């Protein structure tokens, strides 16, 4: 009897990102084509490490996330593996082992790095030779923000009209601007509402149409400010976008209130720091943890002030990160 086929085992490490201009709402739910473009920075030092191995010996996909057999994520991962198997015209099942080095489901976007790493590892394991835009399009279908995390540096996701032109690309390399993101974990509790569910209700906010009318101008403005490295203007626009985004969440039906009391307390603390001459600005995703963006020369002082707050559980210091890396290719 012939030996059963096992393909190479590939390990890829990808970082999550934080959006300066947020993706919120989908024009096409199934293809995950967004209502608007977005801009983000990849977060160096935080990562998901994913190993994928396809084998004829497996009767089902086996998915292990952070040491445990995944239950609620299994369907989404298997559906993504199916997209990749269809492209490669194979039916082999896969073993996927994935680990995050940061708390998940707390607004730190583990799905962005997770599906970016899975897309690259699985396509390589099946010897598919895809370009970066092709990888981005594929990752987008599993998790919108993952399409940005196959790239490095500061990234723009161009909305696009159809699946084949909705993808992300690097607009500034990782070393272009030494921005620091101080990620403040106030609580490692998992959030109760997923982004996937929130995108669906985005249109129910009375502010949504106004946001859509202005968002492309905001994206262009953000790109110009980054090009000039004008930190004060960057920070003002970053916070304005964060508050606009959460206003959409607050006024959606049902309302989505992701913040906890400590989220607001920290936001105000950062505003106070600024009033006292310490430039730092806030952005918050669909979670309660807070990203504080500052420059290297202010980082130490900002961190000292935050450490004094008794509700702060953890501080993760990051800067702009690069593209995903292939850690290992085990050929046998
Ligand atoms: O990719 P998703 O479905 O997890 O949505 C991400 C939504 C935000 O993080 C709030 C914004 C963004 O652009 O990352």
UniProtKB/TrEMBL annotation:
Ranges for domain Diphosphomevalonate decarboxylase-like N-terminal = 14-168
Keywords, sorted A to Z: ATP-binding, Lipid biosynthesis, Lipid metabolism, Lyase, Nucleotide-binding
Q: Name one GO cellular component term.
A: cytosol
Q: Protein name, please?
A: diphosphomevalonate decarboxylase
| Record has ATP-binding as a keyword | yes
**Into which family does the record put it?**
Belongs to the diphosphomevalonate decarboxylase family.
What is a single molecular function from GO for this protein? Answer: ATP binding
Question: Which InterPro entries does the UniProt entry name for this protein?
Answer: GHMP_kinase_C_sf, Mev_decarb, Mev_diP_decarb, MVD-like_N, Mvd1_C, Ribosomal_Su5_D2-typ_SF, Ribsml_uS5_D2-typ_fold_subgr
Give the EC number. 4.1.1.33
**Which top-rank group of organisms is this from?**
Bacteria
Enumerate the spans annotated as Mvd1 C-terminal domain. Answer: 182-309
Q: Which organism is it from?
A: Candidatus Magasanikbacteria bacterium RIFCSPLOWO2_01_FULL_40_15
Top enzyme class: lyase
Query: Lineage of the source organism?
Result: Bacteria, Candidatus Magasanikiibacteriota
Report if keyword Ligase is assigned: no
Q: Which NCBIfam families match?
A: mevDPdecarb (TIGR01240)
| A Gene Ontology BP annotation from the UniProt entry | isopentenyl diphosphate biosynthetic process, mevalonate pathway
